[in-house]
Amino acid sequence: SSDGGRSWGRTAKISTGPYMGGYTPRGVVQLADGTVVMVTADHTLNQTVYMVRSQDGALSWSQPIPLATVEEGSLSEPTAVVLPGDKMVSMMRSGTGYLHQSESSDGGSTWTPVRRTRVRGSPGHLLLLSDGRLLVTYGHRAAPCGIRACLSRDGGQTWDYEAELLIRDDMPNKNLGYPVSIKYEPGRLFTIYYGEREGDGARAVAGYGVSSIQGSYWELS
């Protein structure tokens, strides 16, 4: 789109071979030279996270570049962020219940071995704040259920899990998550996610009520 999304041009096919498919709930990121990068996973196997990139404004895309692979368990629904110097951080959902992480120092060409973080939740959304801190928001699907966040002051090398931020902890059950956060004013953020509305139990299907899109305004010092 060249008019703010009012109209759209042609679509472009993205090859996922040799993987059976690709799925990510997150958008693309952009390097300093304009290269567009999408980090995704091999849905429905969910054993490999990989990236594709475009150097012509998303008209054509590279072949997949592997980021992380597991032989047991699962990795899926990755999020990525670009740091100064074309460094990248990716966090991904895991069958362990904890977010896993990998980093790149060369714009995504190579990645460090994936490792488990202490952040318990899924899936995550990464946001680089103007003061250089890195924020990850995620759904917490254990009582008390809700939406949480964690900060890193060193580009994702460590996370201040002991000071985990509670955006909400009053949601009725674990049918929630997939948050995305934006900063709209200094120190003020808005996080959007899905969850169930209170009072929808009578309309429950398979044990769940009716899902809805919800959001929270919150402050970060």
Question: How would you characterize the overall build of this protein?
Answer:
A hairpin with a 5-residue loop joins strand 1 (29-30) and strand 2 (36-41). The termini are far apart. The strands form 4 sheets. This protein has a 4-stranded antiparallel beta sheet with strand order 1-2-3-4, with no helix packed on it. It is an all-beta fold. It has no helices and 15 strands.
In short:
It contains no helices and 15 strands.
Shape: globular
pLDDT below 50 for ≥5 consecutive residues: which ranges? Answer: none
Q: Helicity range of the residues?
A: under 10%
The helix count comes to: 0
Average pLDDT for all residues: 93
Terminal-residue CA separation = 36 Å
What strand line-up does the widest sheet have?
1-2-3-4
Biggest pleated sheet: 4 strands, antiparallel
Number of strands: 15
- The SS-based structural class is mainly beta
Beta percentage is over 45%
Order of helices and strands: EEEEEEEEEEEEEEE
User: Measured on Cα atoms, how large is the radius of gyration?
Assistant: 18 Å
